[in-house]
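the three lines:
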Amino acid sequence: MQTNRLLPLFKQALLTFTVSLILFGPISGLVLEGFSFRNELTRAVVLAAIVTAGRVAISLVQMTSLGQALTRRMADSGVGVTVMTGTEKSPVLILALLFVAGLSLPFFADKYFLGIAILALIYCLLGLGLNIVVGLAGLLDLGFVAFYAVGAYLLALGSQYLGLGFWGALIIAPLLAGLFGMVLAFPVLKMHGDYLAIVTLGFGEIIRLVLNNWLDFTGGPNGAPVPAPTVFGLEFTRTAKQGGVSIHDYLGIPYSADYKFWFIYLVLFLVVCLVIYAVERLRVMPLGRMWEALREDEIACRSLGVNHVFTKLTAFMLGASTGGLAGVFFAVHQGFVNPTSFTFFESALILAIVVLGGLGSTVGVIAAALVLTILPELLRDFAEYRVLIFGVLMVVMMIWKPRGLVRIKRPAFFPSTTTDAGPLPLTAKAEVA
Amino acid sequence: MDVYILLQQLFNGITLGTIYGLIAVGYTMVYGVIRMINFAHGDVYMVSAYIAAITLAVLTFFGIQSAPFALISVLVITCAVTAVYGWAIERVAYRPLRGSTKLAPLISAIGISLMLQSYVQISQGARDQGVPTLISGAFRFGDGVHFAQITYMQTVILFASLIAMGILTYVINYTRIGRECRATQQNIRMSAVLGVNTDRIISTVFVIGAATAAVGGVLVTFNYGSFNFFIGFVMGIKAFTAAVLGGIGSLPGAVLGGILLGLTEALFAGYVSTDYKDVFAFALLITLLFFRPYGLLGRPEIQKV
Amino acid sequence: MTSISKLFAATAIASALLLAPAFAAETIKIGVAGPYTGANATFGEQVFNGVSAYVNDVNASGGINGKQIELVKGDDACEPKQAVAVANRFVDQDKVQAVIGHFCSSSTIPASEIYNDAGILEMTPSSTNPAVTDRGFDNLFRGCGRDDQQAVVAGGFILDTLKRDKIALIHDKDTYGQGLVDAVKKTIEARGITPVLYEGLTRGERDFNALVTKIKSTGANAVYFGGLIPEGGPLIRQLKEQGVDVVFVSGDSFAQAELVAAAGGGANLKDVYYSATPDPLADPATKNVQDALTKANVTPANYVLYGYANAQAVVAALKAGEDLKAQADWLRTNTVDSAIGKITWDEKGDIKDFKFVFYTFDDKGTPALVN
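prediction for all of em together
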């Protein structure tokens, strides 16, 4: 290879090595022990060498033609969205197959896998909910976990004080969470971008802190128990506790803890499918299009007569309702809720799902929810390196796909093949508003 | 007696607020230039606390005992090393995402935050670390029983913050690099057209932000004496709140917001309830933003059609 | 319905047949669950170190009935969500035969439902919340004291030994800290004394000056703190710095060497007391424990000892029989001579007459027994 290429490479390697030595030197090299320290400098040098080697390797790959092609592909961020023509065939067969595969999962999976699947589906729901707010309506919400907490605590406290059951909570939670969404939405209507972010963050923290501090009502940090779900009055516990009959006694089959998981999984799976369907329908309805229009240009929308209050409010409320639903499932799956499950980090994780999935893309959100819930479990074998690797992968995924795993496709407003365009979308909006 | 308690709470609030302000500067500067909330900033502060303690341990190992000298050298070394962290983070995690969606760097920042916490935990262990008391003693006002006091270390905090803010204000207002920063803040594309190396300016902003966080980190470490790999989280949220309270993007706003937040917390905790002080702080923030949607000193962004 | 149940049964049998050979264990697996990442990671590590120190010894001397013990780590980060995932993994994938854990009560409670369903012996080395055993699970044992046991001792200590009556109660709004402080509150209120202050601080903060000034303004002469060292250390330091003249009493979470550094040196630890199990290192009868720990290169800290003791109990129970009933019955009827003293369990699974003693510090920060 030519020297004129090697010299910059060497300079780069030297710079990387120096910088990483400064970075790793103190933290990895000198370990604090009381008020003194232990010398581990070789560790720092080895780390710096590894990083430098990695950097040089990347540079070398970039010099080859294959690497250059890759770089070009990476650089091509492809701004904008694809608009569907409206003539695409809906992939009914694939969807049906996926649906059947999802439904039959409990028959193949063990409880551990099913537990992760339930968690992944819960995060799907959360992602779908936040996607309405952030992805479609473009309102940055950092306190989404509040609605999740509302749903979870509704079931826990509702059963404790009002005798509310799983099914009741499933119906009330979206309404209550939607109400909370409305309460939050009113003060933030005037705000933009990052001011919105901090207000929602504050709202999420307030909810968590109140749940944690209001000891008499919520149980504070000790949390609250959640009863097992029932179906037609049949319970999923070894011995019936809520005055009914255990399902295994009723059916005359031996008791297994798996039934409860199967049941939760199946109901959750159906709810997720329903929500996906609803969101997809909403996106082609005037309301959904108003959300997306508002995300792109608020001023233009308002001058065209879009009622921005109504639009933002519905986005917040529908998003919150979905979060509330997810909360009910979380509570019933855990059998116990306490405020540690609803920290700011959860909000950040849900936001990561939406952004990583590709803002606004339903398929992307589902894919990202699966990735971000299953990944930490797969990383369990790395023990304490788990979080480190998770963080690295998050950065790498973001750099690799800055616009998300799945590119957003905007549904066609009207079939482009028809010559008669029909009523323009904007006139349709005025009716709703 | 009550006067002294009130005075003491005011001192408490102002010292805490100054530190919030120092950390908030990093948020506000980064936000001003690239409109991004740097969620890893709290963890940069955490790293600086470790570097400060390690530097002090090394100095003690070489037999340096003089407190002022130790304090100043720790401050300088920590600022320098932390600044490299700021630079490296920007280079690795944010620069590749420039020109992408606004939220992409946010998620990347969360990833960096996890990485830093985990890296420090693995390298240094999860246990709590501490530094010995470097300067002890206090100015006391009042008689022997009822008094308010401000410790020497708190005085150092106030002065060091003042000096740091002074240097920063000078750099931003009167130097070439400061002018370029401000120009970039106004309009990044225009500045680039006019020959400002915007990439370098953004790096500089991260370096300055990390260095001020390091000043905060050193002062906090010496004042409270203990830290672990998790301290960045709470401080990050608090400082971010302070930055928004003052008007994100405004330097004096960050300091004002920090002091206001510190005072609110101290007074509410002192006279009402410690349990609900954070609830009150966030509620105050929401109320304030309701009436002043751009914070105390923030300028409304002109919306271009 | 029957066809479905047949299908269920068939799948269950099929999966059992498929999985059985893969998991046909020549080793006995014990799951050790706790926080290995996150804010409480230090404690999880300590428990694991204690457990592995004992298990290495057992393995070296032939294991349990000839079978080697294999430890499986399960990181729950003290989050209920992850605790359930860990529990399911232990039961279904790792097929553990006993669990030592979880660490935080808020993780132990949801996870224990799963172990209870699966019929696996569980012993928690640190979840002191009464709700853990009050649910009446037959498989769940507590290898440490209960908040209410410790609180009775602590309340009596402040009132009778230290003779202080104006008590400020501070907790960290977490399961352990608040549970402990609430129990102390009950104890002293039963004696007719109302605390002068009852407040919670925020975990993760470092500046408690406002709270300290408030404590000072109430004229308290004793502070009882329920919480952990990251907050307790700075609180002690700031109390001293503001010149508040109080005795400071806390629970067994303070039995950690880091306290000295966190509180800013041994000088600040004057008039600081904590309740803990009698230090086994001072007891010549535990020479073998110390040797084992030194051999494993582990500094004996509080939760290391709890981990060690829990491992002793669990291994002894596993030696007693293959099924849960035999193991649980053995624990309920026998005494374990453990690293934290001789322990026996009652019907609920709590340690009978768990002994707490008080420690204070000399000026170098070395703990010393209070007589």
